[in-house]
Design brief:
mainly alpha
């Protein structure tokens, strides 16, 4: 059964605000005529990511359907149909969408990041590509805008990796570069990862700096992207406030602190 356009949009909005609350808050600042399409785009990325993370039997097939659409085939899955509709309005960057699928395949096979370059590539694939696609929907063109959009997405993914260390360990996954772990003693146990986190936070902050510097290249949506960057970056500051992994668990930024970070950046 196919979703009607209103049903799909309602699901996309609900999913964004339930699963990606920070992103959902920032989306409220997007121009009205593009906001709903960004929700739809997020639903595509989220659906594929969930299929892969949950090791659902249809995961590889659904990823392949998006890859085939990127290569010119007719849309043969729900995600591909949504992308085709968005592409008709925004000319989506298909190379970025192919790279996103490569990141999904890396997760499907349980890939390991051996080096920081490997981790950078993975962060580009699963999040830098999201930045590139959203930037294209906001009218960005040119290599400099693309590099900044990818850097901001990569910064957010590196933030995810640091925030979710314990949760990922519980699922048998480690996304941090193996060589970096070994350089800092090999342990991810709470209370034993302070030096590692300081190193990784600095790398993420450098990517935020690069990404934020490129926001001025966006023809539209600058306020939304500025707010999203500031709120997400605040997770790094929360990790620092909590003692760089002195205790296990996820660093959570309170809504008032998120809004304060966004307001400061928007000033």
């Amino acid at each position: 059964m196919r979703d009607g356009p209103d049903d799909l949009l309602a699901e996309a909005r609900t999913t964004t605000h339930r699963v990606a609350r920070t992103f959902g808050l920032a989306c409220r600042l997007l121009p009205r005529d593009v906001r709903d399409d960004v929700y739809r785009l997020y639903l595509v990325f989220r659906s594929l990511d969930d299929l892969v993370d949950e090791r659902r039997p249809a995961a590889a097939e659904r990823v392949a359907a998006v890859e085939a659409w990127c290569d010119g085939a007719a849309p043969a899955s729900r995600e591909a149909r949504v992308l085709a509709a968005l592409d008709a309005r925004h000319a989506l960057p298909r190379a970025a969408l192919r790279d996103f699928c490569a990141g999904m395949r890396f997760d499907l096979r349980g890939g390991v990041n051996e080096t920081e370059a490997d981790l950078d590539r993975y962060c580009h694939q699963v999040a830098g590509t999201v930045g590139l696609t959203v930037a294209a929907m906001l009218g960005a063109r040119g290599a400099a805008a693309g590099r900044a959009a990818s850097a901001l997405g990569m910064a957010m993914q590196r933030t995810n990796v640091l925030r979710d260390i314990d949760e990922d360990l519980g699922s048998g996954r480690v996304y941090l570069a193996r060589e970096t772990l070994e350089r800092f003693g090999g342990s991810l146990a709470a209370g034993q990862r302070s030096a590692l986190l300081r190193d990784q936070i600095a790398r993420a902050d450098a990517l935020y700096d690069q990404g934020v510097a490129g926001i001025e290249l966006l023809p539209r949506g600058r306020r939304a992207v500025t707010a999203a960057a500031a709120m997400y970056r605040e997770i790094l500051r929360q990790i620092e406030r909590e003692g760089y992994g002195a205790r296990p668990g996820r660093a959570v930024v309170s809504p008032p602190r998120k809004l304060a970070a966004a307001a400061l950046a928007l000033r």
